[in-house]
Amino acid sequence: MKKFLFLFSCAALTLSAANAQSGFGIRGGANFFNFGGSDVSENDYTNRVGFHAGVYATILPEGPVSIEPGVFYSVKGSQNDDVLDSRAIFDYIDVPVLVRFRVGEGFNLFAGPQISFLTKSKFEGDFGRSTVTINTDEVKNTDAGLVVGLGYNLPQGFNIQGSYDYGMTPIFKDSDADVFNRGFKVSLGYTF
Asked: What is the gyration radius of the CA atoms in the chain, in angstroms?
């Protein structure tokens, strides 16, 4: 219940910011996530394709610098190309606060912190023709990181962007393993 109230408060702040010298928008797209960190071998895992979708507000949208808080549902994880084609699937609510810098006609660079709240985690593997799913509580409930990227504003309120999420909180509870959520996002948005 506390998590729901916190997320509701974040969404309410985002929407209220949209009314004060700002714009409001929706954004969604594809995720390409993998495990990163010193305890992860590059040969063990490959990018897992997921998605993200949510809302954002742009505070001071006409200036050279703007602030963009948002709330997004995001599916992350990793793929292992082993015999079982196993995969980790983590569902999060991402709450980024980005600072955007205009760098040319339509272009912007952005960066900022992000906190993510786990809503569901599971591990899957394929055994012959069936898929076995194991729900787990071994994944930490929160994940903190940084987001950096490049965006472009298209005509009539549309925008596209590419970003990199650099997770800085180890994923697993009660573990000394240096394993983080890391990955790319490609998004299409619309500002009202």
From this structure: 18
